[in-house]
Amino acid sequence: MNKKKIAIIGAGASGLVSCKSALENGLEPTVFEMGSKVGGLWSEDPNIRKVWDDMQTNVSKYSVCFSDFPHYKSYSDDEIFPNNKSVYKYFNDYSKEFDLFKYIKFNTSVTKVTREYNSINLSNSNNNSSKNNENNESFKWRITINNNNEPEKELFDFLIVSTGVYTKPQELPKLLNDLKSFKGRISYSQEYRNPDRFKEKKVVVLGTSYSGCEIAAEISTVASKCINVGHENMWILKKYLPNKNGNKIPLDILFFNRSASYASEELSMNERWDQRNKAFSNFSPQQDPVKTSNSKVPVHCNKLEECNKDKEIIIKPVYSIVSETYIDLVENDKIKVYSGNGYTIVESLSNGNSLKFQNDLGETYIEEGVDEIILCNGYKLELDFLEQDILKEINYLASDSFQPLILYKNIFPPKTKNLAFISLYRNPFLTECELFSRWATKVFNGKLNYPTNQDIENDIKVQLEKRFQKPRPQLPIMDYIIHCDSIAKEIGCLPDFKELEKSDKELYNIIWSDCFFCSASYRLVGDAIIGAGASGLASCKSALENGLEPTVFEMGSKVGGLWSEDPNIRKVWDDMQTNISKYSVCFSDFPYYKSYSDEEIFPNNKSFNTSVTKVTREYNSNNNNHNNSSNNNNNNNNNNNNNNNNNNNNNNNNNNNNNNNNNENNENNESFKWRITINNNNEPEKELFDFLIVSTGVYTKPQELPKLLNDLKSFKGRISYSQEYRNPDRFKEKKVVVLGTSYSGCEIAAEISNVTSKCINVGHENKWVLKKFLPNSNGKLVPLDFLLFNRARCYYGADMSMDERWDRRNKAYSKYSPSQDLKITPNSKLPVHYNELNNNKKENIKPVFAIISDTYVDQVEKGLIKAYSGNGFEIFESLSDGNSLKFQNDLGETYIEGVDEIILCNGYKLELDFLEQDILKEINYLASDSFQPLILYKNIFPPKTRNLAFISVYRGPFLTECELFSRWATKVFNGKLNYPTNQDIEDDIKVQLEKRIKEPRPQFPILDFIYHCELIAKEIGCLPDFKELEKSDKELYNIIWSDCFFCSASYRLVGDGAKPEIAKSTIINYYNAYKKSLQ
Predict the structure, then answer these.
(1) Fewer beta carbons within 10 Å, N or C terminal of the chain?
(2) CA 533, 535, 538: angle at the middle one, nearest 5?
């Protein structure tokens, strides 16, 4: 399934975070940026930049950052209110951190956007799709761009407009006409860079919003006279304000207060304005005429008591700006202010240098000798590239800089469902930009539903009322925090504050009570993965690719699972190597040559501290006012998502056969979230997650042998487990028994046999022992996985009976290890007894067991290892002297040996004690069964619990399987793929249960690695069409089909997450390295 393409117009704050959110949600973004740099108005491109040299943000660095790229990654420690260069650097660093530059087309202006309707009849679409998403299927967006005057066209599934509202200055045709006799210079604020050219000049600055006041303040230090004219008097707040303890703190930390916002939520509009006027009066007392009778910048406001006496009185909206110096400069007569009561420039007088100012009360003033006028009257949003009916749908009004578009929640159009506008209204903050981007891209990828028609209708009505409200408030968003929390609730990333108060009082106090709002609070909830070994890491990456927000819980301090360098987690010894080559020990899109050395074919083991103690289910409660009640919104859409994706997937898995099954199979996702209790440095805390992946691996604790340990209670020597083994040093000149003839047993025996006085290896089965390099059909020695992982042979053997499979393997292994075949080596010290397939008389051939070791057979042949194996050999008991052990097999043969140490290599058990008992019962958990401890659909999905998956929790998974499982699970969780039907689950669970009770059991639950991978790849939609590949790319086909070469990158050639050029390059590079090694 190819990724859906999304066009994003603009690479400012909204465009960058939209690009990242698109990637997180499995979309393929292209960002069109007309400038040569990122950052929008903060850009360092002089043609795009809208800020002046010394401009600073009017909120602190704690608010000028995204949720997952903290301020300290870019801003300096001593800079609290970043300047324009620092803000640009932050956006540039953010783009580097998340590798966004490769998706941005710079110097590219979008000149036209049109809709291209599908030529195929829409009956092909899924009739069961939600009516709210139907537009997504009917057309794509055609983007016409003009890049260095070379127009081109591209098609996209979705469109995000994130141009910002600061594109062009608001036009004032009447004023410019009234000023036509003015002889001085007229410029716009966006042209202003520094005050140098205004030295000793008389300058009028029109506008008393942020840029007007700050530019006036800056040039007043060099101008002969600076006059500031504006409709409204604003409260002027300094950047640092006193908190309740009298300590001065950044004003945004004071104002962005969750508890205060929620406490004010029920207040009437008059009560809100009154509350703000009283607070601002305390912060700027020289503007309150009651406190300062001769105020030069008075703010006249009605009191709430007056409104209560006369209900017709409405308190005017409160306007404020942020400036450190403006008030002082006014008070010191550096700035002359004509503001409030609608003050404006009326005309220029006939002498060409005099201006007349007038307010709504008819008061007029004339200033003579004006040299320059700077217009700080705001910007207009230009959307000329959109079609007229789209502009009409969104009630586009370019002259309205307050709210130029009327959209559902300021983001979605009422009808066009594959279009979103990010933060196109006056003064959005970065957190709003980010939340809008996350919401839009989750809707586009199908994780969240488009709002209902009724919800849209209701909100559009509210937005239209805002447009016609008189007088209008300063900003369209009344309360920043309430607004952000409401979006977060839609997305499903709003923390449950009541639960947080119980589980983490310190964190709760910070983000709820302590005057501190942090965008990272919207990253507290997401999807849980337990374990940071191979499966956990692959699951984490797949979750990110599929738009989920993963948290990985790892009990150790390093990644890698059993290969970890954390000594408390590590399960491998110092000189241990992989038993397959580096060409197989890698993921599909991170080739071996990025990490392993060239000369290392079989890598050694050298190439976080959070234990999960309990996992429970938290069911939704509708009575919790604090609670994020949008869990249903998060999950209700799984059914629709699966329906919408059927057309993409039906060539692989017939997901569209039965929509009722989708409803039935996904219902559990809607009813609860996962509560993870962790013990991190003995500090328990709790978090909530939508989905859970268990990727602990099966190598957690040694398998217990209570009967054997009881039989050995008189043994005086040391007994240890294989996971404790690191090197052979301590076994020098000792007599050692190694119990177990699987990989670790044989390899540990082989290693210590070089230093022991005697090494005895005991095990139930004799296994074929294969060397790491085996001869191919031309007699060349190649890594054994190249020889055994062969697609053509795998498909050829798919229809064979079990007996035929075992017979084929025995004959092949006999050629590779002839010293173990009694027919070839009658006096073999390590014989493998096997029946041959007789066409006249079919026999049940025993499963074939094999391990990999370059030295084991030789050590046995040399007498350095004494092997008691096959026919059920085991340690029977320790004798009364405390140093002698008795060995016995099923035939009654017994042997006695004097022993100093025993190493138990008897396998591991899977520990899932953190899961609830009914979950363990559902998955048929059997800790003692290291072969297949869980019974799951295709070894991954439980039969009933739909938001839970287990990745490679069985004996012997390879990295490619781990990765494919991870991709499958996360695609099901994000709604791209359907959960399997009940019938499919029932049929497969029956097969898995039969495997568990089958005797004799095979060595691994997966009989053919390649065939298994192909089946999963088919489910995911990433299995190449080999017949088509044979026609289109014969060279590549021959490599991955015929030439004994299996490469996991073949699962990146097609489908969702495909990287065909990189995949092909990787496969050819692998193959060339393989051929070179043959030489």
Answers:
(1) C
(2) 105
